[in-house]
Structures are given as structure tokens and as C-alpha cells.
Specification:
- By secondary structure, this protein is an all-alpha fold.
- Helices cover 75% and strands 0% of the residues.
- Helix 8 runs antiparallel to helix 21 and helix 22 packs antiparallel against helix 26.
- It starts with a helix and ends with a helix.
């Protein structure tokens, strides 16, 4: 049983690694200005490339269907191969190994790479939910929080391998193409469904993962913005990130070692070593089996006590209804949820996609550090629901949590409109990244709670299909207003470049908060019970 539990935790470690390197679209702001210059793009064309990555999510439901009929390792490799093709050909074009790509070729290659992200994410969600069914919010929240660190990881890696700023766009493309494929090949054997039989208490394991995750986030912030940012070399950052990502291996290794110890001692029941009393130690090994039989009732009571929390946790897998995509799209709750997501998490993602141009228009040149800040705060935002799930045994209402997250996000957009200081840019970016992370993490469990776990793979990919729609509408509006206020040569400087955009975005986010309030009142009876 211990070995089965070790495999269960090992699958979670694999998901953490996949998520850490799967956010290839999140590092786009770090090299977008350089890409714009290299390809002689207008702001609208550049925005369309950001849209293209999100547009891949329109076909994310293919991954959900594939996961039903294909083995997960194959779904994983398909997703990473799509990224290899999408980013790999762009790398060859930027390095002049091929010259026949047009702008629209690059656009569709970016769509392909964006779709590959959906395939890997689908595998990660399904494995986390299946292998930890009674702690799915903690499992999904912890693993998806690492997706928010992707930009930090890639920025550190690019800084270590590329000393020429003019070549960094090329290095980003190369890493985006190769690293997810390499990690997928490494993790494919153990990122799979694990059946450990009767569920065991895993709170202690989650506590250790939580502590490691928090330490990882703190290190990411310190290495990006704190004293470590200027004092340490890029390779120091890479080594630090590597240590943080390998640290969760301690849990499956510990479970495996305990399993070997139990087998060696001929202990046939799962129990803590510390529960073996001094009297039991004096019993000869050949009498252990008889002693256990004599104490059968006591052991059974002990097991019941240990598993009581898990049995009670069965209530957590309940849903309002368990329906497929067709019925889901006929529900009012779905459309409320859809528009809440598009004016919340999607709007935050659009802001982050445009962060490079927003910073440049305000005269702020340290775009990489700002992107790292946004990535780190998104990480902590994704992590917060897991902390709450660990701390409280009761279910945290998804719509109410989204509402609380959207209010400060709306305020941040208005702050950006009225204040042009670098401090307001940092504060607003941190809040928007944090809120976006919370909503993104909560949405996984909220989709399950509203529409059931049975068709989650397809249902959630339909929900997140709002991302390309929002990216097209909100990002396109920003690009048009940017061009309108520009100098005629594709550049715009000053607060006026995005002031109207921030008013519109802030108003839409406020509307989304109101819709979240409506959905909360419609579902509050379910969460109360």
C-alpha cells in the first residue's frame, strides 16, 4: 500500500514539473517588443499573435475527448509535439534557417502551440483529480500554481544561456519548443491514474508540498525583484529553481522507504511506526501475526479513526449536477460562469499579455522584472485556494471567492488610469496577477462542482474557450486605441495610450463581479450543505 501511495505522490510531482514548464505563452510579454521589431509588426498584429496562443484553447476540447479514448502518456506527447512544431518552426524562421514563413504562417503556428498547452493541462487536471479525489482542490491548486512560475523559470533560463539581449526572442522560442517535450518524455511513465485502494490520510503530505511550494514562490520573488536579483548570477537562479522543483520528490521517496521498512518488518497493516508500543517490540517476530489477530478489533478502530476524515471527505465530490457539454450550455449557471470568467481571469490574462507594451508606453524599461513579478503573484494567487482547502474542511464557495478576487482587480485598472507612477504599475500588476491566479485555480474545481466530474475534460475546455474570445475583443480594443494615440510609426508613449482601455477593462471587471454575486446567490444552498 505504501508503494501505491508513493506512486500517487510521484504522479503529483510529475504534474508539478509539467505545469512548471507548460506556461510557454506566459513569457510572451518578455520578448514581445523584440519580436515586434524583428518582424516589423504593428501593435494590432502583435496583439493578434498574443490572441493566437489563446485561440488554441478553442480546440482544447479535442484534448478532453482524446483523454477518454487514448492513454494519458500519448495525450501528453501529442501536446508537447504540437508545441515543438509551433515554436520550433518559428525559431528556425527567426534564426533564418527557413525564410518562407509569412505573418499568417506564424499566427497559425502560434495557434498550434497554444493548443498543445491545452493537451498537457488536460492530463494534469485529470491526474490530479483522479489520484486525489477527496483533496482535488488542494491537488489542482498546488500543481496549477506552478504554471504561474513558468515565466520566472524561462526568464532565468534565457538569462543564463543568452548573454545577448538581441538574441533572447530566439532563445525563448527554442526553449518553448524543446523543454515541454523533454519534461513530457521524462514524466510520461508516472503521470497516470493510480488506484491506491482504500483512501488514506494525505494531509501531512500536502502540508509538506505546501511548504515547499511557498518557499519556491518566495525564492522566485526574491530572485526576480529582491537583493538576489542584482547580486546573483543567472546560473545561480537556475540552480535555485532546479532545487525547488526537485524538492517535492522527498515525499514519494519517503513513502517508498517507509514501504520497504514495513515489508521488512512484516507489518501487514498501514499504521505509524510510532504507534508500535514497547510491549509490541518485545514480541518475537514469529508471533507478530498472532498478536495482530488478537488485536484485530483495536486495529480496526484505529484504522477507522485514521480514515474518518477521508470518509467525511466523500461529501466534497458532490456536484450540483453531473451533465455533459450539450446540457451544460443550456444552463443559466454556465453562461453566468462563462461571462464571469471572461471578465475576470481572461481580462487579467489580456493585461498580462500586453504588459510589455503597457510598460514601454509608460517609460518603464525593466520589462523582464515586471513580467517576473506578475508571474510570481499569479503563482501565489493560484496557491491560495489550496491553502484555504487545507486549512478548512468545509468547501469554499467558488463564485464567492471569484467575487472577492475581482473587486481589487477592477480597482487596479482604475488606478492605472489615474496614476502614471512606476509604483502604481507594480502594485496594479501584482494585484491583477494575484487575482487572475486565484480565479484560474478556483475555476477547475468550480467547473466540477457546477457541472460534475464525469465530463470534466470536455466541459472545462469549453469554459476556457472564452479566453481567445476575450483576448480578441479586449486585446483588439487595446491595440486599436494604442494605434489611435500613437505617433504614426507604431509607437505610443504616455498615459493616454491605455487610459481609455483601462476604463473599459475596469468597468467590465466590475460587471463580472456583479455576475459572480448573482451566481453565488443561485448556488449558495449547494455550498452551505
Amino acid at each position: 500500500m505504501r508503494r501505491g501511495t508513493a506512486l500517487q505522490w510521484l504522479s503529483l510531482v510529475g504534474v508539478i514539473w509539467l505545469q512548471s514548464f507548460n506556461g510557454t505563452n506566459s513569457n510572451f510579454p518578455a520578448y514581445s517588443s523584440q519580436l515586434k521589431q524583428l518582424l516589423s509588426l504593428s501593435q494590432l498584429q502583435l496583439n493578434n499573435l498574443a490572441l493566437a496562443s489563446d485561440a488554441g484553447k478553442l480546440f482544447g476540447w479535442f484534448a478532453g475527448i482524446a483523454a477518454i479514448y487514448l492513454p494519458l502518456w500519448l495525450v501528453l506527447l501529442i501536446g508537447s509535439t504540437l508545441g515543438l512544431i509551433g515554436y520550433g518552426l518559428q525559431y528556425l524562421f527567426l534564426t533564418h534557417y527557413i525564410t518562407f514563413l509569412s505573418y499568417w504562417h506564424i499566427f497559425f503556428l502560434t495557434v498550434l502551440a497554444g493548443n498543445g498547452i491545452c493537451w498537457i493541462n488536460t492530463v494534469c487536471y485529470l491526474v490530479a483529480i483522479h489520484n486525489f479525489p477527496y483533496h482535488r482542490q488542494a491537488a489542482v491548486g498546488l500543481t496549477t500554481s506552478y504554471l504561474g512560475l513558468s515565466a520566472v523559470i524561462y526568464t532565468a533560463a534565457v538569462g543564463a544561456f543568452s548573454t545577448k539581449p538581441s538574441k533572447r526572442a530566439e532563445v525563448y522560442m527554442l526553449f518553448n519548443a524543446l523543454i515541454p517535450l523533454i519534461v513530457s518524455v521524462i514524466t510520461a511513465p508516472f503521470v497516470r491514474y493510480i488506484d491506491t485502494g482504500k483512501p488514506k490520510k494525505v494531509e501531512h503530505g500536502f502540508f509538506v508540498v505546501l511548504m515547499i511550494t511557498i518557499a519556491t514562490g518566495i525564492y522566485a520573488v526574491a530572485s526576480s525583484l529582491g537583493p538576489l536579483s542584482s547580486m546573483s548570477s543567472p546560473w545561480f537562479k537556475v540552480v535555485g529553481v532546479t532545487i525547488c522543483l526537485t524538492a517535492p520528490l522527498l515525499i514519494p521517496m519517503g513513502e517508498f522507504c517507509f514501504g520497504l521498512l514495513e515489508e521488512k518488518c512484516c507489518i501487514n497493516r498501514e499504521r505509524r511506526v510510532c504507534d508500535v508500543t514497547t510491549d509490541a517490540d518485545e514480541v518475537e517476530l514469529e508471533d507478530v501475526e498472532n498478536w495482530l489477530k488478537d488485536q484485530d478489533n483495536d486495529v480496526e478502530n484505529w484504522v477507522k479513526d485514521q480514515d474518518s476524515d477521508v470518509v467525511e471527505g466523500k461529501e466534497e465530490i458532490r456536484a450540483i449536477e453531473n451533465i455533459g457539454a450539450k446540457l451544460m450550455m443550456k444552463r443559466l449557471n454556465f453562461w453566468l460562469y462563462f461571462f464571469i470568467y471572461i471578465t475576470g481571469a481572461t481580462l487579467g490574462l489580456v493585461y498580462l499579455n500586453n504588459l510589455g507594451q503597457i510598460a514601454e508606453s509608460r517609460g518603464y524599461l525593466k520589462t523582464s522584472s515586471l513580467v517576473s513579478l506578475a508571474s510570481a503573484m499569479t503563482f501565489f494567487g493560484r496557491l491560495l485556494p489550496s491553502i484555504l482547502d487545507y486549512a478548512y474542511s468545509s468547501m469554499v464557495p467558488g463564485p464567492a471567492s471569484i467575487l472577492v478576487s475581482m473587486v481589487p482587480m477592477a480597482a487596479s485598472f482604475f488606478l492605472l488610469m489615474i496614476n502614471g507612477s512606476n509604483l502604481s504599475l507594480h502594485v496594479s500588476t501584482a494585484i491583477i496577477g494575484f487575482s487572475t491566479g486565484i480565479i484560474t485555480a478556483i475555476s477547475v474545481s468550480t467547473t466540477t462542482e457546477l457541472f460534475g466530474p464525469k465530463h470534466f475534460g470536455v466541459n472545462h475546455n469549453i469554459v476556457v474557450a472564452n479566453i481567445p474570445l476575450g483576448s480578441f475583443l479586449f486585446g483588439g480594443l487595446a491595440a486599436i486605441l494604442y494605434h489611435k494615440n500613437g505617433d504614426g510609426h507604431g509607437k505610443c508613449l504616455g498615459l493616454q495610450c491605455y487610459s481609455t482601455t483601462f476604463v473599459v477593462w475596469g468597468s467590465l471587471c466590475s460587471l463580472g463581479a456583479f455576475l459572480a454575486l448573482v451566481l453565488h446567490f443561485r448556488t449558495r444552498k449547494f455550498y452551505l450543505h
